[in-house]
């Protein structure tokens, strides 16, 4: 049952979305059989008036290189970690310099409490969902500005990225269910 109009809490106006790279501007690359890939969560119902996801390409970085690739996480995806580390296409995808040719990355929106206050529109401010490979969702953190970046640059500093990578691997090794980190990349671009 809906509360009477005069008893409903008033929500603050939503802040404007942050400018971000338009869909389709990143180079497209072919990374295997398109049958192995799917849009993942992007295939969920979406309300055109208040979209749950917004298409967005990553912002490119300069002089990217892999710092680490998890053999266990690569195996979950049916990939060989050594081959992945040698692949310029995979480096381009996992550093945000290219997008898989048959998918469109997107940022998700959600609501929740932040710093003790309800915020009606939070979202992936520095993360993009790349799609799903063999049923596993791939997400790129530090992808640059998304529509939900709230005026930040959308990047991730190396020290916190190393911490997240090592913690996810350590938790997995201890048998604690967790997200997995496929790779860690660095670039010369300033953050």
Question: What's the alpha carbon Rg, rounded to whole Å?
Answer: 18 Å
Mean pLDDT: 83
Strand content: 15-25%
Largest sheet: 3 strands, antiparallel
Order of helices and strands: EEEEHHHEEEEEHE
Helicity range: 10-25%
The coarse overall form would be globular
Would you tell me the structural class of the helices and strands? alpha+beta
Sheet with the most strands: spatial strand order: 2-8-9
Number of helices: 4
- Based on DSSP secondary structure assignment, what is the total number of beta strands? 10
Describe the protein in words.
This protein has 191 residues and is of the alpha+beta class. It has a domain at 57-105 and 118-191. 19% of the residues lie in helices and 25% in strands. The protein has helices at residues 71-76, 81-86, 88-95, 158-173, and strands at residues 28-29, 37-38, 53-55, 65-69, 99-100, 106-114, 117-123, 127-133, 136-141, 183-186. It is globular and about 45 Å long. The termini are far apart.
């Amino acid at each position: 049952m809906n509360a009477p109009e005069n008893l409903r809490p008033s929500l603050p106006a939503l802040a404007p979305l942050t400018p971000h790279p338009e869909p389709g501007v990143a180079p497209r690359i072919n990374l295997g059989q398109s049958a192995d890939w799917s849009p993942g969560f992007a295939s969920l119902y979406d309300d055109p008036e208040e979209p749950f996801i917004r298409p967005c390409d990553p912002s490119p970085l300069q002089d990217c290189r892999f710092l680490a690739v998890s053999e266990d996480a690569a195996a979950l995806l049916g990939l060989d970690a050594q081959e992945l580390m040698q692949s310029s296409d995979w480096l381009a995808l996992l550093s945000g310099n290219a997008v898989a040719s048959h998918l469109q990355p997107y940022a998700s929106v959600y609501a929740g409490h932040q710093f003790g206050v309800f915020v009606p529109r939070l979202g992936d401010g520095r993360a993009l969902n790349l799609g799903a490979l063999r049923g596993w969702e791939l997400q790129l953190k530090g992808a640059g500005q998304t529509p939900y970046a709230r005026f930040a640059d959308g990047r991730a500093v190396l020290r916190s990225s190393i911490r997240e990578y090592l913690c996810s691997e350590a938790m997995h090794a201890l048998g604690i269910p967790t997200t997995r980190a496929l790779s860690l990349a660095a670039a010369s671009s300033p953050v």
